[in-house]
Design goal:
globular; tt1808, chain A; alpha+beta; 32 strands
């Protein structure tokens, strides 16, 4: 029955009156009585289907939570159209609803969903005994239980149901909640979750949990590491890093068992034992005292998490520090509830955690970023929607052809740089869902009892036994970092324990004498995926060399799989770091071993070729990698190699920020061993504002012919754009050829603070010694170069003549004497800065110098300058001898015709297709891309072409004068007049360029739409 607002008002008033009449006796009522007689009716009158009448289980609106004696889970999940919107806990009237214990319990459950997919994310929690009614904003982070009282958005007594009925109806009536939770027009979401508050005050569980683990001052890692170093002075950073991670892994695993209520409260037992072992500063006996608990967990769960490990056996850590970590993890103190916090989110946490290690000296312990992470600019953790997309389009495709679980069991999935295991978790989830679907359709026979069961709602659930078999049969990974291997095994093990039925673990233990988890040591391995045992040639490596290189022989490590042709699926997110991170000798090894070798390539280039080798003849490969390989010089060998393979898809994200806090822009590359067509699908993703990447790709993809792609760079243009490219190339010559290679990078000084000066410093240096005038040149940064605008001499470069450095003398001191003698004011100015640089570089007497440049003379001549990173064509013309920095490129010609062409839309159309992108719609206008631009050469023996050339020069000369006049304008009115004229001349230049290249109206439309 559906109630009108007025009907609900009357019924709720009667409910309140009944409660008031019996309030004294209700103090002794059970929780069930309060729920059935007051709380459920309240929501029934607000039009919630509290009995779930006529609803399928997937669309239940009042979902009752099954919980154990400790009652760690709230009583209800309120759901609408299959989407969880609110969590609610009911209490007896005798309890105070403001007690932090009860508030924190329901808050932590909802807060832990903040990283979940939208259908499982709950922003608000309700705590009520009907007498009191509290609604909490659970998007805010509360490190301690007491803080939750600050998050109350509603705090009512039962009288408010009547006195504030209009507000109650607006905020909690079923249809209002359904509309508001989706569209945020009115109600809880629109009123209490404003965008400003979201941005300013919300910390998601993954970020908060990572801070708790890894805060530099108070995080668990630093507390444990410092205590271990204090008690084990000889322990190095490697040992402490490993020991700390193993201990944290164990404690988190135990917390997950407690939160999910699938086993005893081992976390509470552990806390008791540690406390009983003593908490003075000298007490360190906890590990020995807890050994029986760890042994029991190891015997039952198997895996590798609780197995005896020398890392933990060989260090001691104090009881007090361990207790502080355990206390933080216990449900009554922790805002994280692993009953709802997805295992996949642990991956995002651990991926960042793995990017840092413990460094030790004799007296200090520091947590530092790994050098390769620092060089790469951070950790590139793959968003879940990317993982899901890649898995669905590789493993998902193969599962479509599987008829039985026996077919699915044959599939072998590999991540060769598994990190925290996110892709393997995604593959595991896909396999579990496939098996659920199979048994839901066909699995009723007795022989399937060991594989699945139906829960109380009739939904198919897989048994622990089958989950164990899937884990063992299907999933494989390798990583060079031993800690990553530990985390992947740990994450997969936690995933295997999701959705177990109550008592299933006890049944496994008592009836079948089974261990719950498989030993994953033969599935997830530590090694260097890119280097085999032939790395050392015929010379036997030392133990230290083996430890550093970690060669990995695929044929022996995965003998059976490789003997059967290889893996069915290879997926992942390989490292985006330079190959030097693998040691000095890797380059020579890669040159001999990989077709895609390039001296400046990132490692992901080699991972692509290696992964393709590891596929069987029907296999699928898909990585998310930086998109720079499509255009960069180092990607040429990869592009050439890829054209010989079967490309299925490239989904390019351009300059979109797929990776949080990282400036690498990715693409998804998918290859197949069985596709036999030259055409592949391409999607240029223009926005991340989509609900489903699969759907976005389906509606935006187009085909590209592999044979049309150039080794010099891939534009991934559609057929009409590709045809236009080919036409432009046919009527033009590349800019590099047009200017005889006179395209150069700007100057990198090596020490800007010493060599780049302002006007005031220039004047002072010349007044101190006239010789300074010889070596001070006008200097432009990229931001100073404006389209058609005359450069301004506001910054200057100290340009010491070539030969003053060690080329002049083999001794840095002699070079300094020479500089002091010839340019004393300059020497005096430079010295303080270079002294600081020498100190910072830790290189003794190393002399910091202006970097050598073989084309200084080009800057003195007329030339075209363009910023190296800019959104659109912004070429300037200089006849005044300006030098420019490394954020510019220069074209060393005095050619106004070329200048006009470059500032037009046609070359920009090409540039935006071949250049690497930067966030915010910026492109790299660097020599490697500039040299490819199509320039329409003029036949001066043809009067018509000669006339077009003269017309272009006249228009460009007019444009330069207009910009000069605009720069000198005294009023806004004058500026407006010049801007209108500039726009008119700009359009005339574009029309002339379209005419020069012979573009049709359709082709002009393609250019205009892109630029």
């Amino acid at each position: 029955m559906t109630y009108t607002k007025e009907e609900a008002r009357i019924r709720i008033a009667k409910l309140v009156e009944d409660f008031r009449a019996h309030e004294a006796t209700l103090e002794k009522a059970t929780e069930a009585q309060i729920e059935n007689n007051f709380i459920r009716p309240l929501f029934r009158y607000l039009n919630w289907n509290t009995e779930n009448e006529g609803l399928s289980h997937a669309h239940y609106e009042f979902k009752v939570q099954v919980t154990n004696k400790k009652g760690l889970r709230p009583d209800y999940i309120l759901s609408l159209e299959g989407r969880d919107v609110l969590v609610m806990d009911a209490k007896q009237v005798k309890y105070s609803m403001k007690d932090p214990r009860w508030l924190y319990q329901v808050y932590s459950y909802a807060y832990s969903t903040q990283n979940s997919k939208p259908s499982e994310k709950m922003d608000f929690a309700i705590l009520t005994d009907f007498q009191e009614f509290i609604v909490l904003d659970c998007t805010l982070f509360a490190a301690k239980p007491e803080a939750v009282n600050n998050f109350r958005v509603l705090d009512w007594t039962y009288n408010d149901y009547v006195e504030k009925f209009d507000e109650l109806w607006e905020l909690l009536e079923r249809n209002n909640v359904m509309n508001d939770s989706k569209e945020r027009k009115s109600g809880l979401w629109s009123r209490y979750l404003s965008p400003q508050k979201v941005k300013a005050n919300r910390v998601s569980p993954d970020k908060a949990f990572l801070a708790e683990m890894d805060d530099e001052k108070s995080g668990w890692r630093v507390l444990l590491a410092k205590d271990m170093k204090k008690r084990n002075p000889s322990a190095d950073g490697e040992l402490i890093t490993a020991a700390v991670q193993l201990l944290i892994d164990r404690l988190i695993f135990i917390k997950a068992l407690s939160d999910r209520e699938v086993d005893r409260d081992y976390l509470g037992e552990l806390a008791d034992v540690v406390k009983q072992s003593g908490l003075s500063d000298d007490d360190t006996s906890w590990f020995k005292a807890c050994k029986s608990i760890f042994d029991e967990l190891n015997n039952f769960y198997n895996g590798s998490i609780f197995a005896p490990r020398p890392e933990l056996e060989n260090v001691t850590v104090s009881n007090k520090v361990v207790q502080s970590v355990i206390t933080d993890l216990q449900p009554e103190n922790s805002p994280y509830n692993f009953a709802v916090l997805p295992v996949e989110i642990l991956g995002t946490i651990y991926e960042r955690f793995l990017g840092r290690v413990v460094r030790t000296t004799e007296k200090q312990v520091k947590i530092e970023e790994k050098p390769e992470v620092r060089k790469a600019g951070g950790v590139y953790y793959t968003p879940q929607y990317i993982v899901d997309y890649i898995v669905a389009n590789t493993l998902g495709k193969l599962l479509e052809d599987c008829k039985t679980p026996a077919d699915a069991a044959k599939l072998k999935v590999l991540d060769p740089s598994c990190g925290s295991g996110s892709f393997l978790l995604g593959a595991y989830d896909k396999l579990i869902e496939w098996h659920k679907g199979y048994f839901a359709r066909a699995g009723k026979e007795k022989r399937d009892r060991e594989s699945f069961y139906r829960d109380e709602s009739g939904q198919v659930r897989l048994t622990a036994k089958l989950k164990r078999e899937i884990l063992k049969n299907n999933l494989f990974g390798v990583d060079i970092d031993p800690q990553a291997v530990e985390v992947t095994r740990f994450s997969l093990s936690l995933k295997a324990l999701e959705d177990l039925r109550e008592g299933e673990l006890t049944e496994e233990r008592t009836l079948f004498h089974q261990t719950v988890l498989p030993d994953l040591s033969q599935n997830i391995k530590n090694g260097n995926s890119l280097v085999s045992t032939d790395y050392f040639g015929l010379i036997a490596p030392t133990a230290d060399e083996l430890k550093e290189v970690k060669p990995f022989n695929w044929k022996t490590e995965f003998k059976e799989i490789m003997a059967n042709g290889g893996f069915d699926v290879v997926v992942g997110n390989p490292p985006y770091v330079r190959q030097e991170t693998l040691g000095e000798n890797f380059k020579s090894y890669a040159q001999k071993s990989y077709s895609v070798y390039a001296g400046t390539a990132d490692l992901y280039v080699y991972f692509i070729e290696q992964s393709h080798r590891l596929l069987n003849e029907n296999g699928f490969f898909s990585f998310i990698v930086a998109n720079k390989w499509m255009r960069a010089n180092y990607g040429q060998s990869l592009r050439r190699w890829l054209k010989q393979q079967q490309i299925e898809e490239i989904t390019d994200f351009g300059d979109l920020p797929v990776f949080e806090s990282a400036t690498t822009y990715p693409c998804i590359l998918r290859l197949s061993k069985k596709t036999s067509t030259a055409k592949f699908n391409v999607t240029q993703v223009k926005s991340l504002d989509f609900q489903d990447l699969n759907e976005y790709v389906r509606t935006n993809q187009y085909h590209v012919d592999q044979t049309s792609l150039s080794d010099s760079g891939w534009s991934l243009a559609n057929e009409s754009r590709q045809a236009l490219f080919e036409k432009l190339q046919s009527v033009s010559v590349p800019l590099g050829k047009y200017v005889n290679g006179r395209i150069f990078y700007g100057i990198k000084t090596g020490l800007n603070e010493a060599f780049v000066i302002d006007k005031e410093t220039k004047t002072r240096l010349i007044s101190e010694h006239a010789s300074s005038q010889e070596v001070i040149k006008p200097f432009l940064a990229g931001r100073d170069v404006k389209r058609y605008s005359p450069p301004k001499d506001e910054t200057f470069l100290i340009l010491i003549p070539r030969g003053w450095t060690r080329e002049k003398s083999n001794n840095a001191r002699d070079a300094w004497i020479w500089l002091s003698k010839n340019y004393p004011a300059i020497a005096s100015h430079v010295k303080p800065f270079t002294d600081k640089a020498i100190k910072r570089s830790d290189q003794g007497e190393y002399w910091w110098e202006l970097r050598a440049c073989d084309y200084y003379d080009e800057f003195e001549k007329p030339k075209i300058i363009v910023p190296a990173i800019v959104q659109r064509a912004s070429y300037a013309f200089d006849q005044s001898g300006f030098y420019s920095n490394d954020k510019t490129s220069i074209i060393g010609v005095d050619d106004l015709y070329l200048f006009g062409i470059l500032n037009s839309k046609v070359p920009d159309f090409v540039m935006h297709s071949i250049s690497s992108t930067k966030q915010g719609g910026y492109f790299e206008y660097k020599p490697m891309y500039l040299e490819q631009l199509p320039i329409r050469a003029i036949d001066f023996n043809n009067p018509a072409e000669k006339s077009q050339h003269e017309k272009m020069v006249a228009l460009v000369s007019q444009m330069l004068e207009l910009h000069k006049s605009k720069a000198g304008a005294k009023t806004q009115s004058e500026v407006d007049v010049y801007e209108r004229q500039i726009k008119s001349v700009d359009e005339a230049i574009d029309r002339l360029v379209y005419e020069l290249y012979g573009l049709t109206p359709e082709e002009i439309n393609i250019v205009e739409n892109q630029t």
